[in-house]
Design goal:
CATH architecture of the largest domain: Sandwich
Strand order of the largest sheet: 1-7-4-9-2
Shape: elongated
Keywords: Membrane, Transmembrane, Transmembrane helix
Order of helices and strands: HHHEEEEEEEEEE
Organism: Pseudomonas sihuiensis
Number of strands: 10
Radius of gyration: 27 Å
Protein name: Transmembrane anchor protein
Distance between the termini: 78 Å
Number of domains: 2
Structural class: alpha+beta
Number of helices: 3
Strand content: 35-45%
Largest sheet: 5 strands, antiparallel
Length: 210
């Protein structure tokens, strides 16, 4: 059996040394939190170091992706509820418009241009009553966009169609209920994108809500 000698009081760290070590560890942890964790995870950069290291941009992307994922999940849940309650709203593709009851006038009734900076989102809606149909066509100049064609109003919401990295879309929205029905776009590219949306048909007004 080996003889192990007990440490003497002189061998043990003093209370002052323990407090000093604890303080140093605490300061280091705070520095890492402020300079690295907050910028990279939440895009919060009080010191500016995260921006220099490129961590703030990464944190912004993570935050945006998390927000989009949450929005997608909410829209999917709303769409499922709408289906179970028998809502009949649809988006009819352009090639099937011959059966849609929309205006025969060849001119567009409204047109709106929306400039999206990198990472920016925007929303344009039509005020519609249940069963009304509105023809639309939108294009993106300067790049592609993610989009969600959806509606909300009176405590109800529905997602008609979604897409990622899409340059254009057209068709007919048939309102599932009284409310606002239209589009949300987000620019995931590095350069500015201009979305041009044109509409005609059965609706009260077009408005930008975001």
């Amino acid at each position: 059996m080996y003889n192990v000698s007990k440490p003497t009081l002189d061998d043990l760290p003093s209370s002052k040394q323990l407090l000093r070590s604890t303080f140093i560890a605490l300061v280091a942890a705070i520095a890492i939190l402020v300079a690295i964790v907050l910028p990279s995870e939440h895009a919060i950069d009080p010191t500016g170091i995260g921006r220099v290291l490129g961590l703030t941009e990464m944190g912004g992307i993570k935050t945006q992706l998390a927000e989009e994922a949450a929005a997608d999940a909410a829209m999917d849940a709303a769409k499922a509820v709408a289906v179970t309650t028998g809502n009949a709203g649809t988006v009819v593709p352009a090639q099937a418009q011959s059966t849609a009851q929309v205006t025969n006038d060849s001119a567009w009734r409204d047109e709106m241009r929306v400039v999206l900076k990198s990472g920016q989102g925007a929303e344009v809606k039509l005020s519609m009553k249940a069963g009304e149909q509105a023809e639309f066509s939108w294009t993106s100049e300067g790049g592609v966009v993610n989009f969600d064609t959806h509606g909300d109003g009176g405590g109800q919401s529905i997602s008609y169609e979604k897409g990622r990295a899409v340059p254009a879309s057209d068709g007919v929205i048939q309102a599932a209920f009284n409310g606002n029905h239209g589009w949300f776009w987000r620019n995931r590219g590095d350069a500015d994108v201009t979305v041009i949306v044109r509409t005609r048909g059965q609706y009260a007004e077009m408005k930008r809500v975001l």
